[in-house]
TrEMBL record, chains A, B:
Lineage of producing organism: Bacteria, Pseudomonadati, Pseudomonadota, Betaproteobacteria, Burkholderiales
Keywords: Methyltransferase, Transferase
Molecular function GO terms recorded: RNA binding; RNA methyltransferase activity
GO BP term, example: RNA processing
Classification via Gene3D superfamilies: 3.30.1330.30, 3.40.1280.10
Protein name: tRNA/rRNA methyltransferase (SpoU)
Length: 260, 260
């Protein structure tokens, strides 16, 4: 069913060099046209979403264990000497394996999809967590403005836990591009607008989540139909943006459920 | 008002060694009885919460800038040669400064406080984000079971952004200790119980958030008065636990607001 895996023992191997770049440079996927999914949890999530990896990569010592579960997952298997694994790993504990997948072709914005707009979010963990929440709550598109963490970087992929494969992802956008969205846009705010838990929310809609320090930019604020804030009875400090996004996207899902 | 700062140029300096340990070993604060807050955002948040650091530490090149804002923040200022800063830093971009604070004295569980129970949460970023949400939504106590990421570690402190100083934090608990909580306990579940957005929530209450992979343990599940799940119309995959916690804690705050 599957051929004997290729075995990489040299630091100069071409594939190893490319994997090193993919794991260290968060935007290398744009040049290479492929992405690196590291760790058994994420790889399993990708398989569960119907992905077919081009290459499955295993550490030498993990390969015997991996045989049963993953040997047939990819078109090609590659085993890497244990001493070289740390070159391509950004992780501490998960099982030493990964998939190489072709980067999905870039798509344009769909104006009618329920959308999450990411306005220059810096933290890859936040971005991944928001992708995961978006997918869970029925949003099907994520629109990232220029300055947002690279959506297909290793960190965002790991935090997204497979959500990437359930979403239409569009990145590198300018504020004016957002005008192509026909759904009503809601901007989160720390100090103005209706309180979320009392607001009637439209569906479909687009939620704009802003930069960790600066919030939503003026250019996007003026494009929003409504401003919404989250009541924080414990004090005025702002929430983590991943937490705020989860609360807003869940509220949309709950409103949709209650409406029909 | 303040003396000329001590200047550390030697890698063998005793304070530098202790800071190195605090920044590299997530539970070193227990031995040292003090915590290390790194980066200007977190330090500012601690000051805003009324904290008085024992020592303020600056990199040599940042010190001139820091003078105006931070020179009077602590009892003692220390400046560290730039080449040594990376020894004690876990960060890439924030301003190279930090505070040393005495570890607050351990307190016992308060049975009547609105509480978030952390059941062996592994990820420091998740734990910090949950502390932040807890504080924002009026929960005043966090009870961490043994196996949860160390609450006063650098990573949790940074993700918590000052929330530590607004909460009663109790860690190292066994499941039986949770019996001391008199508030009704709600356990999050991926597959059973009422849907959160239709549930009437008690106040005060305790929310139990479970391990990233395994969820809430059976020992805590049986201590919960109710099981609550979050509707996920987009599919059955589980949310990030920091996202789930934000949604649940916000729902409690919203219910409390609607009730009174």
């Amino acid at each position: 069913m599957h051929a004997t895996p290729a075995f990489i023992q040299s630091r100069d191997n071409a594939l190893l060099k490319e994997l090193r770049r993919l794991s260290q440079d968060s935007s290398a996927y744009r040049k290479q046209g492929r992405v690196w999914l590291e760790g058994d949890h994420l790889c399993s999530a990708a398989l569960a979403r119907g992905q077919k990896p081009a290459i499955a990569v295993f550490s030498e010592s993990f390969w015997p264990q991996a045989l049963a579960e993953y040997a047939r997952a990819a078109t090609k298997n590659v085993v890497i000497a244990d001493v070289l694994w740390s070159d391509i790993s950004a992780l501490e504990s998960p099982a030493p394996m990964g998939f190489v997948l072709p980067l999905p072709e870039a798509e344009g914005l769909d104006g009618r999809m329920p959308t999450v707009v990411l306005d220059r979010l810096q933290d890859a963990g936040n971005v991944g967590s928001i992708l995961r929440s978006a997918s869970a709550f029925g949003f099907t598109q994520v629109a990232a403005l220029k300055g947002t963490a690279a959506l297909w970087s290793g960190k965002v992929l790991r935090a997204g836990m497979g959500a990437h494969f359930a979403l239409r992802l569009v990145e590198g956008l300018a504020p004016a591009d957002i005008d192509r969205l026909e759904v009503p846009l809601l901007a989160t705010s720390s100090h103005e607008g209706d309180f979320l838990h009392r607001a009637a929310l439209p569906w479909p809609c687009g939620w704009i989540m802003g930069h960790e320090g600066q919030g939503v930019s003026p250019a996007l604020q003026q494009r929003a139909r409504r401003h919404i804030r989250i009541a924080q009875p414990g004090g005025e400090e702002s929430l983590n943006v991943g937490a705020a996004a989860a609360i807003c996207l869940h509220a949309s899902a709950a409103a949709r459920d209650s409406a029909g």
